[in-house]
Give the backbone structure.
Amino acid sequence: MKRSWNPGLWFGFVLLLLGMVSYPLFFARFPVTRDFPWANFLIILLALVLIGIGVARAFGRPDQYRGEISGSILAVLALGLTMFFCYGVFVVTKQLPASHAAPHIGDLAPDFTLADSKGNPMTLSALIDSPFSGNGLSPAATASGPTAATVLIFYRGYW
């Protein structure tokens, strides 16, 4: 009796490769799948299940299906590639290089102009020199009082 090829092994391995390659080529574009690659993990999990079924079929019914040797090699290779993918996603992408030019606490910020919530241009120097108008008082009433405080928040992330 002629043994047939084991499609679960090969489809699973191709699906695993597609799941790994699709993260940087497609899924990294979207924030919902970039931060945690859940779609890729589902694809990889489905691929590992198909490979597991293929290996079980090859060893369970060797008279019908071939693939004891190739299935074992593909299963070990698939586990290694899955670990490599997890290492790349969870370790390598989180290691940002040190930024020596980033501002430190107490450094003076250069003067810049940005739009406020109404679209009007605001400069940093104008914000620092403007009087503080607290408790509903007009700016003219507090002209001799304290000036407004300005807080700058620098967020260094990756995207």
